[in-house]
Amino acid sequence: MCGIIGVVANKESNKLAELVVSCLTRLEYRGYDSVGVASLSNNFLEVRKAKGTVEEVVKKKNIKDMSGFAFLGHTRWATHGPPTDYNAHPHTDCNNEIAVVHNGTIRNFKELRDELQALGHKFKSETDTEVIPHLIEEYMKRGMDAFQAFKSAIKIIQGSYAVLAIIKGEKRIFFARRDNPLIIGVGEDKNFIASDIPSFLPYTKKVIIIGEGELGYITPSSVYIEDEKGNPIDVLSRMQIIDWDASSASKEGYTHFMLKEIHESPIAVKDTISGFLNDMETVKEVAEEIRRANRIIVIAAGTSYHAGLYFSLLLNRKGYTAIPLIASEYYNIKLSKNDIVLAISQSGETLDVKMGIKKFKEEGAKIVSLTNVIESHIARESNYKLYMRAGPEIGVAATKTFTSQLASLLFLYSVIERESVDYLEKAHEVVRNVITETEGLAKKFGEELAKKSNIYYLGRGLGVPLAMEGALKIKEIAYIHAEAYPAGESKHGPIALVEKGFPVVFINYGELDDELEKNLQEMKARFAITYSISVNKKLNFSDFEILVNADERLSALAIAPIIQMIAYYAAVKRGYDPDKPRNLAKTVTVE
Amino acid sequence: MKALVLAAGKGEGLLPYTEKTQKESITVLGKAIINYSIDGLKKSGVKEFVIVVNERGNQIEEEVEKLNVSFETVIQKRQGIDGAILDGMEKIDDDVFILSFGDIIAPYNFYKSLMNTYIMSGKQAVVSLVPVSEGIQTYGLVKITDKLRIVKESSTLALAGAYIIPKGDFTSFLDYIDFLSSQDKLAYFIWSEDWIDIGYPEDLLYALEVLLKKKESVISENAEVSKTAIIGKGVIIEDYAVVEDYAIIKGPAYIGKNAYVGSYSLVRDYSSLEEGSKIGAYCEIAHSLIEPFAEVGSKSYLTYSIIGKNAKIGASVITASYPPHVLTRPRFNKLGALISPNTSIKHGSILEPGTKI
Questions:
Q1: Cis omega (within 30 of 0) on the bond before B323?
Q2: Are A430 and B145 in contact (CB under 8 A)?
Q3: CB of B288 within 8 A of CB of B336?
Q4: I need a surface site. Which of A341, A479, B130, B290 has the fewest CB within 10 A?
Q5: Mean pLDDT across the stretch B145-167?
Q6: A350-405 pLDDT, tens digit each
Q7: Which residues form the Mannose-1-phosphate guanyltransferase C-terminal domain (chain B) (predicted)?
Q8: B310: closest CA of chain A, how far (Å)
Q9: Residues paired with residue A324 on neighbouring β-strands, in sequence order
């Protein structure tokens, strides 16, 4: 989800730098941790880059002073190597004559890097991207012209990519794409190329689509594209006029980021599991620390707290003492010797969690963090860093990050328990199947619940944290008052409110279903309307039911997307924008 | 990019209504069903249309001409939807084209999303998908795995009737989708907002609900609305419509151009009187679609019913709507009568729920 922009114009000017900055600003929504710009003039290729926001980096590095006729800009979301100034894009070759920006993952970068280093190339970053400028340099050294060298470099890399390159002596921007978007914008006296249309939409509405596996170059007045076999493409036949707004273009067909991100959950889970497998050493160390600990304090806020509560229940059932702690209530726990703290935060910047960590560190605790942002504040403050790899999440309501948290915590739990983690290799398929099989039903549930003012979400056992998350989600985005309780607790108070037509959603995790069935009957006896979301075992007598089948160890991953889709469709039915819920921020950095 | 619009189906779910009337020419809120697709595509930048029709093509042409777009019609020769696509495809010169079903009512952003996905994905083909929960077996379903696959069950995601596909040599459109997906040439998006596939009477009534919910009251200055009439919220009254003394239009409701509402009549709750239709005095119309130039005699009571173009409903006709008979896509638990165009119903008739004439 990095952002890419390239501009090439007839005349050298520092006004182009301002233009690139404005394009970069419009890429900010994709999420990033560092920013960089390269400029190319007749005599000079220059790169200025740093960790931070567009505003910070532009100011710090005087980017608006850069001059040239071709520019590359990049916003980076760290994957290979932490977010640092030197890992920020663009990356250059040994002689600073070739600059490259890249979005995607190069699978064979280690082999290529080793080979290039053996040939004497000097690397300045830990990124996979840096192999590309060195490859181009190497091919040019061997006598190829710039385009041939670029093509040869692209041919040898494996993986996914959207790549732009500028090369000293060339008045063009070279590009290639596979599995990552790249769009050309045709301007009056300049041409653009970017990872999405909104970045250049104020400057041109004429776009040319680049297909999978295609590559080519843009000059200030022309576009050249060829397919994988080297056949030139008729670019004029590809030209489209865009007349929609920037926000709708960036959602890639989906009406809202939230729904798009729910549909990205399977890949987020898959990438997260694969990230954990690649970092088995850390996971094993964390597991050992947890096994040795006296108590495990699991601190988190909001949705992350529900993931933490789920994890705590898993551990407590195995005889560990895990204490789920709402981050803002951190002062209620005094650490004792041999306690360990697990901090969970999507952004890694949640202030309440940061404050809790600070206190527990002062009390001498070891901190394990689970975040979705590499080298985020919370990660940096931790002794052990675990990462989800859900990718940036733009919708304010956590969706794919929650599912990825559950997958991460199940992985960690299995390692603690010395169980095989093989079953998690199918986790993304469970999420994907559930979405396909239940989206229509979740829409129907959501639209029914949209008519209500109050809802109870009830569950038992491991279903309780998911009931809590279901209630939170529908509160957050559909603005329907919802409360969650352990189902057995409902008769100790909450049931007093139940009357004819009162909606009660049962989260049937697939365990304790007989007990849950009794609670459902109690609600029905008060004329409640009952909805149930069940894994593997049906709840009899429910008025409406969504039943899915899944490996019982993955029930949480099956339920998570359903409760999210219900909330989403309830919000849409009520006419609200689920991406921007009122009074909420994506990252809560205030007390 | 050209659009190929299909409007040659038999309309089996709406028989006998569609024996002589092409489904896509039925009007809803003053606009033929096919024109919802064509208008949406036009607003997404499509300039040329090829429309596949049958022997009733003139009904379609008459409606599409109202939109001022460049189009040509092709009479379907081969059988089924696959045949219609293949017949239409012969008129498309471009490598890639939009395939649109002419019986879908969706906002124009639906078509923009289709174009958007095509551009952003860089894939050669795009399919639109919608979540469905009623009458699931009546839709073409897909399963999202590593590749998108056409399935017959275990899915609640349906093909949504608007696609971008490259021209190809195929005999089955669904197999072609599977093929494009297996070749990694296919992108998809989920459309989560309003979308109605008009296949059954209940779909037309549902369309009235969906469309009228979004409308705000507009009363034409050229309409003749009696001072004693009561006009509620969400009411649209078009040019030269007449609303007589003491009539109540409770809304949400649509009174089309030149339509007539007799004295003391009540039009309420998602009803539409299309162009030139007339209802006499003391009628009650609820959740019903009265097609152009249909006439309803005085003292009639119509609910959850569809009255075809030029049909004549006698005085004191009552449509019962509950229990609803068998509904294929049960969005309501009521269904009244489906009265074909140009037919007449005798004075005083009582029509049982689900009557089809």
A1: yes
A2: no
A3: yes
A4: A479
A5: 93
A6: 889 999 999 999 999 999 999 998 778 899 899 999 999 888 788 889 999 999 99
A7: 249-317
A8: 36
A9: A298
Residue A73's DSSP bridge partners are A5, A37
A276-304 b/e (C-beta count within 10 Å ≥ 16 → b): beeeeeebeebbebbeebebbbbbbbbbb
Chain A contact set for B184 (CB, 8 A) = 212
Whole-model pTM: value is: 0.86
For A273-303, write each residue's pLDDT tens digit: 999 999 999 999 999 999 999 999 999 999 9
Q: How many CA atoms lie within 13 A of A229 on its CB side?
A: 2
- Between the alpha carbon of residue A397 and those of residues A266, A473, A497, B170, the distances in Å are 17, 7, 28, 43
- Alpha carbons B304 and B320: distance in angstroms, whole number: 9
Chain B CB contacts of A181 under 8 Å are: 120-122
Structure tokens at B316: 């004191």
On the 0-12 / 13-18 / 19+ scale of CB atoms within 10 A, B281 is middle
* Mean pLDDT over the full length of chain A: 92
Residues contacting residue A214 through CB under 8 Å, at least 6 positions apart? A176, A177, A225, A226, A227, A228, A233, B122
Q: How far is A252 from chain B (nearest CA, A)?
A: 5
pLDDT tens-digit readout, A34-66:
999 999 998 899 999 999 888 899 999 999 999
Closest CA to A133 of A176, A99, A174, A102: A99
Chain A residues with CB under 8 Å of B123 CB are: 211-212
Asked whether A298 and A327 are in contact (CB, 8 A), the reply is no
CB nearest to A255's CB, from B133, B187, B193: B193
Beta bridge partners of A126: none
Burial of residue A43 (number of CB atoms within 10 Å: 0-12, 13-18, 19+): exposed
β-strands B278-279, B260-261: how paired?
Answer: parallel
Give the dihedral sign, CA A571/A577/A578/A583. Answer: negative
Q: What letters, b where the CB count within 10 A reaches 16 and e where it falls short, cover B53-71? A: bbebbebbbebbeeeebeb
Chain B neighbors of A210, CB-CB under 8 A = 122
Instruction: Collect all residues of chain B within an 8 Å Cβ-Cβ radius of residue A211.
Output: 122-124
Measured between CB atoms, does B118 come within 8 Å of chain A? yes
Is some CB atom of chain A closer than 8 A to the CB atom of B138?
A: no
Between strands A91-92 and A98-106, the pairing is: antiparallel
By C-alpha distance, the chain A residue nearest B128 is A253
B119/A209 Cβ within 8 A? yes
Find residue B266's DSSP bridge partners.
B248, B284
B157 neighbors B127 (Cβ within 8 angstroms): no
Q: Is A385 a catalytic residue?
A: no
Task: Say if A197 is an interface residue toward chain B (CB within 8 Å).
Answer: yes
Please, which pLDDT band fits residue B38 given cuts at 50, 70 and 90?
A: very high
- Provide ipTM, 2 decimals: 0.91
Measure the CA–CA gap between A49 and A66, rounded to whole angstroms: 12
Catalytic residue among A2, A190, A473, A475: A2
Q: Is A223 helix (H, G, I), strand (E, B) or coil?
A: strand
Q: What are the φ and ψ backbone dihedral angles of A414, each rounded to 5 degrees? A: -65, -35
Report yes or no: A474 and A581 within 8 Å, Cβ to Cβ: no
- Cross-chain residue pair A253–B117, CB shorter than 8 Å: yes
Query: Who among A196, A252, A433 is closest to B117 (CB)?
Result: A252
Question: Residue B57 belongs to what H/E stretch?
Answer: helix B57-64
A484 at B interface, C-beta within 8 A: no
- Cα distances (angstroms) measured from residue A406 to each of A476, B164, B357: 20, 37, 57
| Interchain pair A432, B189: CB under 8 A | no
CA distances from A396 to A32, A263, A328, A392, B77 (A): 16, 15, 20, 11, 52
Task: Check CB contact of B122 with chain A, cutoff 8 Å.
Answer: yes
